[in-house]
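Sample A.
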Amino acid sequence: MPAARPADDHRPSFLLGQPFWLADGQDAAQRWDLAIREDEPAIEGLQSAIRPVSDAPARGKHSASWKRIDRSQLVRFAVGDEPHCQRIGVVCGAGLGKTTNLAWLEAAVNGLNRGFHRALGYCLELRDLPRDRHQLLESMVGRVSNRVEATKAAIRHGLRRLLAAGRVTFLLDSLDQADPNPKGPVVAALRELVQGVWRRCRVWVSGRPYAFRTARPALAALEPNIHWQFLRIGQLDQPECRQLLETTERPGAS
């Protein structure tokens, strides 16, 4: 199947400097505790506007901590076969651009080796994730067919091979806007995806800390042998915030 071409990126280039943080720790429970905290990782010279929640667990010397990573590492995680790449939660404070960053990651994955890397990034709203795999496949066929010159039958065949081989990274956006209820339809659709015949595919889920706090029992129980890793999208500094506001307010800006 011809590789999907990355979408045109008209987002401000300064957003590429927005920091990403990896939950650095061997213990899965400690990584979860870190991810569901509301406080932002500390950046030298920039004080977080978000204060820790009062019931946040204390940080011991063996607790997980946030380690800053660059975007090349982010892309490697998205296409890597290592166990820690399989299930990743992308935690983000309000208004810090989780949707924009997932769209960037989708384009970056699909643009690897000029589009000929044997991997596919597929981004969609988590609330739009169907429980029926056939319906999801046909949705993927429809989107890819708008970007490549191939018949739908050829695209479908190629996607089935990628999915069976675990070469698709699902980037599922906005757990908080979907429904983090552990007994709700969104978690059920997610369970169907990670426990079915496509279980080797990588699944990333974005959301605010409170959504992961609510869904934690269900997500942690999806696959007992595969533990969740967490990334956090950091806040912009003051000059970047000003530039973002100026860019957004210009006539015709998107």
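Sample B, a different protein:
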Amino acid sequence: MGGTITGLTGTGLVLKDTVNNNQVTVTAGSASFTITPGVAPGGTYNVSVLTQPSTPAQFCRVTGATGNITTANITSVAVACTNVGQVVFVANPYDNGNKGTLASFTITPSTGALTPANGNPNAPAVVPAATDNNPTGIAVDPSGNFLYVANSGTYSVGTGNDVATWTIDPAGTLTVEGTPVTISPTNQPGSLAIDPVPSGSPYLYVGANDSPNGTLDAFNPVLGVLGAPLTVTPYTAGNVPNTLVVDSTRQFVFEPNNFDGTIGVFAISTGGVLAAITGSPFALLGAPYAVAASPTGQFIYVTDTSTSPGTVNEFSYDNTGALTLVNTYTVGVTPYGVAIDPSGQFLYVSNAGDGTVSGFTITTTGPNTGALTSVGPAVTTGGGVSATQTSLVVDPSSQYLYVANGDNASTGSSISVFTITPVTGVPVAVGSPVPATNGGGNGTTAIAIK
């Protein structure tokens, strides 16, 4: 009795047939397994993970785990392994006298708990270069070696507004900051999205508040060095692209514009160059804020802050990128952030107006594919209602959820940690929120994970 294994890179995976009390230790890199001794015809089996892999830490799930033995060997049990998240990064635009800071936290693989990567819980954050102000958006390079930071600058445009690269060392700390790139004097970068090219350097897209409308810029960084934008003139976006996402098929960039009620759609062509599709931007919501794309393609989900309570909205898109509103779901007050777990099973929304997180399961098969079903009442983050919870992220193994508290210059400077209940998707708090600034600072907003 056995089956297949995908994604196993760690050592120490032990699978057990709990009915017959037999087990096997699986070698890293294995694509299959067999548990011996065998089971006689007429017997039953139930395969589970006795010990999860380590080095690197992984989380393995079993499907087709149970059944009856008839007259043939069982080879249909499937084990899928994914890496557990290693480091959580946050941007604090209002820390350090409103100049801003960045912080990194290592993840305990068994619990999801966070520890400051620099070892100092009272001062977990680092201060950007003197030329940077108000880090507002962050994104991790697919290699895991670099953190890209959008510094929106001071409210008097033209001071500290740039995109910077930080080196991530093996311990998860941020060390050397590269030379920031200023796109234009009137450009205030605020959102980032990465197109993870399978081979070669990724494409980095930057959304910004500009005059008179928002803009998008595209880069093709090499070993963290941004270089010049791919086009001389920024792409015209709406007003203002607070978030961006690249769809899983790597064909489109979606950008909701909170202040004009539109969603822009840009097609990705050769070399990462963008072109607005026919009909873009689409005027489909009152005040779209954040966007997440299904890992399987076909759907995006956009929060809307124009009603109270707010909504998260399901859109389908065709091979041209054109959007169709499929359904609308009620969430909490002022939904700022939305995230989908990498397995594509669960969706979460952070509600800035009432300090909660709403959770949904995602229908993955059948005629209602993409539909959302609530996992139950929204849960509080513990960060306080006035902290205005903003972005949130799920770790690569789909075990842990992290929420930034929050977009407020006077309150809120922490990360809430949740475990995700298997099958149901219900988020369960892990301890109290973790302070993310250097004491007295505020405004933990953007969050990213390695």
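Observation for Sample B: The longest strand covers residues 44-51.
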